[in-house]
Amino acid sequence: MRCVLGALRPWWHTVLQFTAGVAWALLLLVPGWLLSPRSVERRLVAEVYHDIAAGLRAIGTPGAGAARRSTTAALNVTVSWYVDKALVGTSTIAQIAANSDATVTFDYLPAGLSAGPHTVMVTADLDHDGVINQARGEVATSTLFYNQAVPPAPGWIILVGLAVFLPVLLGMVALRRRGQR
């Protein structure tokens, strides 16, 4: 008996289900796009004009600075992570609203990193030019961390020793018994 991919049902069932899924997605998306294909862009442009108008109305008032800052948002911000001045990874923040903060995390496994003090630096490049200009709101911060070389616990050493020693011992006993027969 052969075991073939799709043996539980005919191969054309998978093709039919995939085609039905594509048709269902198109049925849900296309009518809205046909009725107003540019609605998202129009709404975003209108938001910008409303924000600019609010900033113009605020000229000469105490809230002028806040109104000016509220019209800007950062899009696709590249956050670079460095350990000892060597790039270890990047993250991208899709959008940071005006006058707000964003939190980004990066998981890093310091494999092969020597014991002792090390520097981690994080930069946020708003205009993607590779230069951190703090006058334009771009950020670079660094901190010191210590990597400690931790030797394996004695329990693990004993466990690994037994895991190697016992199979070798059992193998030698089995070979010796086989030789006596």
What does this structure look like?
- The structure is a single chain.
- The protein has 181 residues and is of the alpha+beta class.
- The chain folds into three domains: 39-69; 76-147, no CATH class; 152-181.
- It is 43% helix and 22% strand.
- The chain is built from four helices and four strands.
- Strands 2-1-3-4 form a four-stranded antiparallel sheet, with no helix packed on it.
- Strand 1 and strand 2 form a beta hairpin.
- The radius of gyration is 31 Å and the shape is flat.
- The model has no long low-confidence stretch (mean pLDDT 81).
For the biggest β-sheet, the strand order reads 2-1-3-4
Distance between the ends: 42 Å
Structural class comes to: alpha+beta
Question: Uncertain runs with pLDDT below 50, 5 residues or more?
Answer: none
- The average pLDDT is 81
User: Tally of extended strands?
Assistant: 4
Number of helices: 4
Lay out the secondary structure:
Layout: H1 11-35, H2 39-57, H3 64-69, E1 74-83, E2 86-96, E3 116-125, E4 139-147, H4 154-180
Antiparallel strand pairs: 1-2, 1-3, 3-4
Which features characterize this protein?
181 residues, alpha+beta, 3 domains, four-stranded antiparallel β-sheet, 4 strands, flat
Short description:
By secondary structure, the protein is an alpha+beta fold.
